[in-house]
Amino acid sequence: MLIFSGTLTSHAEEDHTPLKLKNAVINQTEAKSGDRIVITFEVEPDYESGPMPDADINIMDGSGNIMYSMMSYMGDNKYQFAMGMGESDPMGEWSISTITFNDNAGNTSVYAGTDPLLKHTKWKFLDGKPEAEIDRDPPELKNFTLLTKSVDAAGKVEFSLDLADQNGPSSGSIIFKHTKTDSVLNESITYNKTNGRYEGSISLPEFAKNGEWKISFLLLRDRLGNEKWYRPDEYPFLKNTAFEVTGGVSDFEKPVYKSISFSKQKVHGGDKLTVFVDAVDKDSKIEEAKEPIKFTIF
Length: 298
Known about the structure:
The structure is a single chain. By secondary structure, this protein is mostly beta strands. It has one helix at 236-239, and strands spanning 2-7, 21-26, 30-31, 36-43, 54-60, 66-75, 78-84, 92-102, 108-112, 123-125, 140-146, 150-152, 156-164, 171-178, 184-192, 197-203, 211-221, 227-230, 242-246, 256-262, 272-280.
């Protein structure tokens, strides 16, 4: 039997009003390489749940491509977005595509760049690259070599890659999946300046699952943000890439949930609530709950 205790807090349960944009100010409408664009957004005061610490913003660059980014809440009902302009960025007019605000009660408001409050937040980048000179090609994977074919739990799995990219060095990540469960292992792909190779190593946990692990997918990204996903079913040299783990865990069956009960059926903000969970695991036994219990208020 697992027992959880906690104190319930109240978060403006009756707040159904999203944040409302009041105005926006941009620091300059023309920019050159090295300049920093800063846009400040002011929202109407939210006296109920309050604004979230971050907001989403999508920027349309000079060639019409959309760039996803985020901005932070600065206090005093203001969010601020900032970005530096570089010589590899496309020249032309840059503008806001959309911005999305959220408050702490889960209310969302979305504003398009064509909104009257945002139409003036455009800037012209004067000395960037013409569209024809901009690299839109992601890194190209030529070959993948798994250097470790068998390993003990708590050991290391090493690999190397051959790839081509005119805007390197690139970076990326790789995920291996256990063939008998949904367990995954992931690691970053980095460029080794000493030997000029792309490589990586996965440090296995002490209780890694025994058996075969295969590549699930691989992601490569260059310094300009061009990226590509590589999957084994699309690239033959990845299809049979696998390593074998021994000396780890052979218990692949998950704990089985049986029932749940509460110390109280009715609660108020500030009350202490205890949750009783009945679950079984025939092999390894249940030591603790890894996930917090979440409640939804209707």
